[in-house]
Amino acid sequence: MQSTQGLQQLGHDTSLGIAFLPQKANLGQMGGVKLSESSVLHAGVGLEAGYDTNVFFQNNNRVAAPVLRVVPFLELTNGERGGAMPTGLYYDLTATLLYREFLTDDDNAKQQRAFNPVLSALVDFNPNAPLNVSLTDQFARFEEPPYGAGTGNITRIYNMAGLQLSYAPGGGRLQMMLRYSNMVNVFETEALKYANHMGHDLTLDLSWRWLPKTSLFVQASQGYIDYFNPDDAPANLARQDSYPLRTLLGLRGLITNKLNLHVGVGYLNGFYTGSVQNTSGLSNLGAVAELSYAPTPLTKLMVGYRREFRNSPVIANFFDVDSPYVSFSANVATRMMLTAFARYEARRYRGSIVPGAEERKDNVVQAGAQADLFVANWFFLGASYIATVNDSNYQELFPNSAGFDYTKHLVLARLGVTY
User: Fold this and answer.
1) Architecture in CATH of 4-418
2) Could you tell me if 172 and 209 are in contact, meaning their C-beta atoms sit under 8 angstroms apart?
């Protein structure tokens, strides 16, 4: 197993290298097998071929390889194609499998064959009523290359479940949302089992609509993070349970017919137990500022900034992050889907990693674009590109280790059928 010092992204960048395929016929097009008056089964498969310039996240001794991915999926729902939900009960159940193969003579890369399943479920009771209850769950198992060339991989199971109650009496001027979330993060990789944990979170969101489509809101979230195997952690990476508190006060909603604003500021605290470093100073400040513009119903441009702290299960205790971002999406003539995004994250890790060394600082840049064209209602062609750059002050401490400074490009062309 490679050194865990480079594993700064586990649990946070699950989208790294994954471009999402269309999983149903395009907007406004019919499809699926009707199983009953209300239930429809959708199915399909996508085939991707491309090139990964840095399989093992290391600039020294970089390994590049062609990559092949096959993505079958199933979806069972009683929702309408245009997105409208029925009254009474709405459900949407999906199953996806991502099979990945590196087509190379490099022995380490050849061993990175992966089968990554994702199962998700949404059940919504009275979705259009003032009082609404919804249940959600998503299960995923990831097999990803290690940080540094090797025949082993990093295998992780992730499950997120939620129960949400929403209430909007009268005309909806006052709204309340109460949500409980449960997260389980389990590494099958032996050297990382000390990071296995469960998280509980209870969130209350209250809002008052003081303009026709603009609301003042206050949000409070209390969590509990419980590590399963803290005694297995290396001495310099002690795992401690915590009771994270997050609050936010702000404004959200339309300020014109096409312009949407979401701004807020709040108090954060990790409340870590034991003798590990806790949140203090600017780590206790949370903020969000997001502006989106929709010139048409199917086109959206968004720019934003977020400041928060995140629990770090593998190294340190947590890290502060400042992140500006921008994204664009468009559906052209209900045939072509275009998306693009870019984001920067300044991560400042808090807590011991290397005794006597300065705190770790990483600068992460990620950008990508994707285009899919439905040649027919059931057949699409597409391409995607994603780039990731990580720059860390710890590369100087570990000049021969992977996962600190690296640049990674992933280019894919694809075709698929959906019904």
Assistant:
1) Beta Barrel (2.40)
2) yes
